[in-house]
Specification:
- By secondary structure, the protein is an all-alpha fold.
- It has a domain at about 25-85.
- The chain has helices at about 10-40, 45-50, 55-85, 85-90.
- Helix 2 packs antiparallel against helix 3.
- The radius of gyration is 18 Å and the shape is elongated.
- The chain starts with 7 loop residues before the first helix and ends with a helix.
Length: about 90
């Protein structure tokens, strides 16, 4: 894998590392909200459907699933950042 150690791209890598959790969280929220508003399938739609029929068990299961998916995405992105930015962590430590 090619590592960029100098120049404008190397300077931006740190900012991308810091912004990645915010961006991934916002993207995940947008997906769930768009499912609630615009489509007839998906996890967000299922939660709203369960709310209309007062199926609290399905609402809680949907919320729990969203939380687990968010946690899995966060763990995966942190592992990816740790692998891609090894050179940056070595400079700081």
């Amino acid at each position: 894998m090619c590592e960029v150690r100098f120049g404008p791209i190397a300077g931006e890598r740190k900012e991308l590392d810091l912004d990645t959790p915010i961006r991934e969280g916002a993207a995940f929220i947008v997906v769930i909200v768009s499912e609630m508003i615009a489509v007839n399938s998906g996890l967000g739609f299922r939660i709203l459907e369960a709310r209309e029929f007062m199926w609290s068990d399905k609402i809680i299961a949907g919320m729990f699933t969203i939380g687990l998916l968010g946690l899995a995405i966060d763990i995966g992105m942190n592992a990816l950042n740790a692998r891609l930015l090894r050179w940056h962590r070595g400079i700081n430590n």
